[in-house]
Design goal:
It is a single chain. The protein is mainly alpha-helical. It contains 52 helices and two strands. A two-stranded antiparallel ribbon has the order 1-2. The relative contact order is 0.03. It comes from Linum trigynum. Belongs to the PPR family. P subfamily. This is Pentatricopeptide repeat-containing protein-mitochondrial domain-containing protein. InterPro entries: PPR_P_subfamily, PPR_rpt, TPR-like_helical_dom_sf, TPR_mt.
């Protein structure tokens, strides 16, 4: 919410100008101001200037809060002329805090110095206890704090917890008769308000401070720089230094240290170093800051929006006068020649940390050496910072030597020291050293803190060291420590990765018993289960029991649950959850909409995704580019290219710039559909908009040019892929190999193929294409070499690659290799496809299997008869000599349920048993065939002849030959050849020769008879025509 400024300011404030903005009343007025959490050079922030009439702006009485200690219900006086006398205001500089190493730190009750709590004498301890436990603070203040000295007032003020109490106590002190306003008290209040990010109330306090005649000191400015910087308002924080410079104050070392910290934490390392070096020569240059220099300080519209930077450039610059505070340094050009060196330990610590984080180890080491040379005392923080710097930059041995130097200088390491070493050893992968550092903490009488355990648990979980991790947790429980919520998701992830889901559940239940989980932690744990596809477990956590304070589920939890359902493809459940979340008081955010749209698009529910996309825009959210691209990609997959283009146009109208993924999907979609012109047009648009093509886009263009048969265009695109980081990938290279193969360009294809092999990117497609190229060019030896190399490299991973390799081997006559590949394929649970069986039929023919037998197997496969596939495979194994595999396959159907087999199955069984030398089993199978009433055919007799020949059963051969001669068995060339081979196996060459002559005479006579019959039919036809 942007407020408008209704008050003008001048260099010299009169009481009239500020009489309507009482700081103390404004503190407790109900405000709509929202604390700032992140810097923004563009955004506006509220300064609390309400647009109500001045008489209604601040209430005159304040009601007590409903919880906590009862704040006083009292009437506060406005700042008006009657509050101040016409005499010059008495100003007290108060007393200086003795902690020079960090004068900006206002210690709380629990603050300590080197581990020892501060102790106060006199009445202060009893007053502090009373104020902490009192229900009526106003009564306690009047009863105990009316006659305190300025120093005692300061102690009471700085020990209060919470900005509200600080303001109440401060208002009470100001109401005392002899109270003298001083900078220290205002500094305490300003710091409390800044830490609470009550910027509007801080402004009022600043204005009141000026009206009281109290000038800001170096401590004031240092404190303001600190609180604004820690709030993330880097630019605004540094504007206080500009204000300080305009007032004639030069930053002291503490203030300078605060500026460096702000710049360091913002990652502005060079600017921080430059500011430090300029300070050393007495000069502060802030010209490189982006100030609103165009603002007219003297003419500000009362209705103009007020930004924090604008406020700093107007009101604060004109508040407090230009009179330098006595005793402070003045910024002038004369000081440029003055050499300065830091004298505080904290400054050197900040500088070492600055150089370490910016990777400037030499500068960090020089600063460390300068510290020694200057005689500035080192503390534990100094060594911790230097140890961390050396370790993170890879100099672990130097870090360990610094630990020894600490002991030599009698500077005791603290828990943070050992935490740093635990972290460094963990990053280096030295688990034992990290655990040893953890053990040393107790050995030197220190106690591990939350950082210690968090670092250790993270290290052990990442390495799946379950036992060691559980030992650490057990040690924590002995000291009544609970596992930090940041560590819980990592522990559960480790358990799930190790398959220990029961332990993960027990651990989570224990964590819930120890206290409620934050929404962020709960969502992170749900996300662990969601990523593993364990949606039911994520759902149980989502609907699990919660304490009263967290009954309402956070939108982050809903987003993760939607993701879990989406990964499990439970789209209906995800949509139902999305639609009902409002009923439970949680409204979807931009992330929710993006997640649901992308989920639906991934599930090809594109119409629902498109509808939700429109709803998202209607709710005022701007969809991400990835959300639009998911919808476009879905339309492309579904071949709905017109809808994909429509979504693309909608994306442009919404002001979302398409990225390479969007253009890639459109180009690929049009390329696959054959619409080459549109694919090229979108590529042109992509280049015009400055989007660089990636591998996917260029590969899609290769497809386009391949469809066009445009070799030159394809080659040009391939050359572009070489300019990408990492060069062309396997997809692009395979496309070029395929293109070269189509044009028969062997050497060019070999060059690309060899390049892929050198990079380790050659895949089954690369090898398959090269085999096809060599085979088509008649280079069978090279084709076989590629097939062997492919087999040895383990790239035979799918049915297609096996088919290509078997084709290559069968073409070269290496039939046994084909059988071995078939066996590998079956062992990998890869089911042969139609191309595979087509190859197997070719292999059987090349192996000399009777054509009638092959036709019978082909017919059984086409008719999808039971055991057809097993019979074909068994036949191949038997034919190539892999008899044990053939018998195993054969017994798979012969020993199946006692059913009548088809004739082809009996024939295969007889064939397999006969070739393997198991003649008895072959003959028994023939008898079973007859018992089952299955009539033998020509294939049956051919297989029996093989068995008779192997067994030397000449009578059996004669019987079959007689049946063949008298026409009881169908005459075929395969039958005669089988008889000839069988007689020769039985050492009856005479009978083999007789059958061979009979075969030749019979088939020659048959040919003559067929020829004569054909001639007679022709003559008859001619006579009819005549």
């Amino acid at each position: 919410m942007i407020h408008t400024c209704t008050t003008s300011y001048s260099h010299c404030h009169s009481s009239k100008e500020i009489s309507h903005e009482s700081f103390q009343a404004r503190i407790f007025a109900q405000s709509k101001f929202r604390p700032l959490h992140s810097p923004s050079s563009q955004g506006r922030v509220s300064l609390g200037f309400n647009q109500l009439p001045r008489t209604q702006r601040y209430p005159s009485s304040i009601s007590s809060p409903q919880c906590g200690p009862q704040l006083p219900s009292r009437r506060y006086s406005f700042l008006n002329p009657s509050c101040y006398s016409s005499e010059p205001a008495k100003i007290s500089c108060g007393f200086k805090l003795r902690c020079q190493s960090n004068s900006l730190t206002l210690p709380s009750r629990s603050s300590s110095f080197r581990g020892k709590k501060r102790k106060y004498g006199g009445v202060i301890p009893s007053i502090l206890r009373s104020l902490e436990s009192a229900e009526d603070i106003d009564k306690t203040l009047h009863g105990s704090c009316e006659n305190l000295s300025a120093k005692e007032q300061t102690v009471i003020l700085k020990e209060q917890r919470g900005w509200e109490k600080v303001v109440i106590v401060f208002e009470f002190f100001k109401s005392q008769k002899d109270y003298v306003p001083n900078a220290i008290h205002y500094n305490i209040v300003l710091r409390a308000l800044g830490r609470a990010q009550k910027w509007d109330d801080l402004r009022l306090c600043w204005v009141e401070m000026a009206k009281s005649g109290v000038f800001p000191t170096n401590n004031t400015y240092g404190m303001l720089v600190d609180v604004y910087g820690k709030a993330g308002l880097v630019q605004e924080s540094l504007l206080w230094i500009k204000h300080m410079k305009h007032r004639g104050l030069f930053p002291d070392e503490v203030t300078m240290n605060s500026v460096i910290k702000v710049l360091k934490d913002a990652g502005e390392f060079d600017r921080a170093d430059r500011f430090y070096r300029q300070w050393c020569v007495g000069h502060v240059d802030l010209d490189d800051l982006k100030f609103d220099s165009a603002v007219d300080f003297d003419d500000v519209s009362s209705s103009a929006p007020v930004s924090l930077k604008y406020f700093l450039s107007t009101e604060l610059f004109k508040t407090g006068g230009r009179v330098p505070t006595p005793g402070v340094e003045v910024a002038s050009d004369e000081m440029n020649t003055v050499g300065r060196k830091p004298r505080l330990t904290s400054t050197y610590n900040t500088l070492i940390d600055l150089y370490g984080k910016s990777g400037r180890l030499k500068d960090a080491a020089d600063t460390f050496a300068e510290m020694l040379k200057s005689g500035v005392a080192m503390d534990t923080i100094t060594f911790n910072t230097m140890i961390f710097t050396c370790g993170t930059l890879g100099h672990l041995s130097e870090a360990e030597s610094l630990l020894k130097k600490m002991e030599e200088r009698r500077i005791p390491p603290d828990t943070t020291t050992y935490n740093i070493f635990i972290s460094l050893h963990a990053e280096a992968g030295n688990v034992d050293a990290a655990i040893n550092s953890y053990r040393k903490i107790r050995e030197v009488s220190l106690s591990p803190d939350s950082v210690t355990y968090r670092t250790l648990l993270l290290m052990l979980c990442e390495r799946h060291m379950v036992g060691e991790m559980e030992n650490i947790i057990e040690e924590m429980e002995k000291t009544s420590r609970s596992v930090d919520q940041h560590s819980m998701p990592g522990i559960i992830r480790m358990y799930i990765d190790e398959g220990l889901r029961d332990r993960a559940k027990i651990f989570l239940e224990k964590c819930l018993a120890n206290g409620s989980l934050s929404a962020k932690t709960r969502a992170a744990i749900m996300n662990v289960y969601a990523e593993k596809g364990l949606w039911a477990e994520a759902e149980a956590i989502f609907h699990g029991k919660r304490d009263g304070a967290r009954l309402k589920k956070d939108v982050l939890e809903y987003n993760v649950m939607v993701k879990a359902y989406g990964k499990a493809k439970l789209y209906d459940k995800a949509l139902s959850l999305f639609r009902t979340m409002r009923n439970h008081g949680t409204w979807p955010d931009e992330c929710t909409y993006n997640s649901v749209v992308q989920m639906l698009s991934g599930g090809d529910l594109v119409e629902k995704a498109r509808s939700l996309l429109a709803e998202m825009k209607g709710a005022g959210f701007k969809p991400q580019c990835s959300t639009f691209s998911s919808v476009i990609a879905c339309y492309v997959r579904l071949r709905q290219l017109s809808d994909a283009v429509s979504t693309y146009q909608e994306m442009l109208e919404a002001g979302v710039k398409p990225n390479v993924v969007v253009y890639g999907a459109l180009i690929d979609g049009f390329a696959e559909s054959g619409n080459v012109e549109e694919a090229l047009r979108y590529f042109s648009v992509m280049e015009e908009t400055g989007v660089s093509p990636n591998q996917i886009v260029l590969t899609s263009l290769l497809k386009v040019y391949s469809k066009l048969g445009c070799f030159d265009g394809a080659k040009q695109i391939y050359e572009k892929t070489k300019l990408l980081e990492g060069g062309p990938d396997s997809v692009a290279s395979n496309s070029m190999i395929s293109l070269y193969a189509e044009f028969g360009m062997v050497s060019e294809a070999e060059m690309v193929f060899n390049g892929l092999k050198e990079k380790g990117l050659a895949d089954e497609i690369s090898y398959g294409t090269m085999m096809y190229l060599y085979k088509s060019m008649g280079m069978l030896d090279k084709a076989i070499d590629v097939a062997d190399e492919m087999k040895q490299s383990g790239l035979l991973s799918d049915c297609i690659s096996y088919n290509k390799a078997m084709l290559c081997y069968s073409t070269n006559g290496q039939l046994r290799a084909c059988g071995e590949l078939l066996h590998e394929m079956i062992e990998k649970k890869l089911s042969p496809d139609g191309w595979t069986f087509s190859l197997l039929f070719t292999i059987l023919k090349k192996g000399g299997v009777a054509s009638e037998a092959v036709k019978e197997l082909e017919s059984s496969y086409l008719d999808a008869k039971p055991y057809a596939a097993q019979s074909i495979i068994a036949s191949v194994f038997s034919m190539v000599g892999l008899h044990s595999l053939a018998l195993e396959s054969c017994e798979g159907f012969t020993k199946a349920a006692k059913v009548v087999l088809d004739r082809f199955a009996y024939n295969v069984a007889i064939y397999v048993y006969g070739l393997s030398g198991k003649i008895d089993k072959a003959l028994n199978m023939f008898m079973r065939m007859q018992d089952d009433g299955v009539e033998p055919d020509i294939v049956t007799h051919i297989n029996l002849v093989h068995c008779y020949g192997k067994a030397g059963m000449v009578e059996g051969l004669k019987r079959v030959y007689t049946q063949l001669k008298y026409g009881e068995i169908e005459r075929s060339e395969s039958m005669f050849k089988a008889l000839v081979d069988a007689y020769r196996i039985a050492d009856r060459d005479d009978l083999a020769e007789m059958v061979d002559q009979d075969m030749r005479f019979g088939f020659d006579s048959q040919e003559f008879s067929d020829s004569e019959s054909h001639s007679q039919h022709t003559t008859s036809d001619s006579d009819i025509e005549d």
